[in-house]
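sorry to bug you again but im stuck and you know this stuff better than me. below you get a single protein, a line of residues and a line of whole numbers that encode the local backbone shape. mainly i need to know what kind of three dimensional shape the backbone takes. anything you notice is useful, everything is just below:

***
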Amino acid sequence: MTTLTMAKAINAGLRRSLAGDDRVVLMGEDIGTLGGVYRVTDGLQTEFGPRRVMDSPLAESGILGTAVGMAYRGYRPVVEIQFDGFIYPAFDQIVSQVARMRYRTAGAVSMPITIRVPFAGGIGAAEHHSDSPEAYFAHAAGLRVVSPSSPEDAYTLIQQAIASDDPVLYFEPKRRYHVKGEVDETAPLADARPMSTARVVVEGTDVTLVTYGGLVQTARDAAIAAADEGVSVEVIDLRSLSPLDMDTVIASVRKTGRLVVTHEAPLSGGLGAEVAAAITERCFYDLEHAPVRITGHDIPYPAAKLEGAHVPDLDRILDGIDRALDRPNSLTGVED
């Protein structure tokens, strides 16, 4: 086992994929000589050369258009969108071409494109550098959407994404880039947890708490804090946002009878709404309380000094758990 930050774990996963398959190429703004804004691709151009790790123009639609052409020619391009809010110029390429091509050609043409996106807030960045646009892409049929929450998961998920014949949006929680964890760089990829499955991070019996990406650690902290008050919280890391592994969530809710979902993206139309609706449809008679969603607000991402009031934190998640349990509201002191 090797101790790596999440950024270094992604770097190691990219290196292993580049070394194992000559068809894998990396493209993005400043990913070569600079190693990317977050240094995730640091050293890869030196090791594999500028024909495998390519600095691109500042044109996201051009990056994705080039990736589509390369995929047509049998390559497996991995493109980096420098910041989450920069992905929108490439939106048409992704949802109109990348997502549809395999279906449109009845499987004759695959689009094995991996799109790396540093996403979400928590680092005091500007509004166009702190978006959570995952729901846009989870809504587009033909795309896989994943988000790691630990170095170990980041290492295996990036390799699985690159190996997939489906296009994959790989959302990297930038607030977790420098968090360290143990990674087994020698384990066969075939032994890793399947890319489309969720993971029970903390087992519990009273409430199911579902999240992904950068909020998984906050959810774990909430489970520890709730345990001090005698509440057993089961924490589920979705990992895959499309497709959703609802079987894991359903099994948990049938045990606990209560669901809380949290994410940084706004409330309306977020992944939490899909999870809550699916659970209400399939676990209605198991529920002891309506599902509770703890999310970002329905506003553009605020200025950095205000993000603490926007991003779900420990107190807001614990308040959601109290509501799901019909306990006195920790913020108002009254019953819901």
The two ends are 47 Å apart (CA to CA). The chain has a mean pLDDT of 95. The CA atoms of residues 148 and 154 lie 5 Å apart.
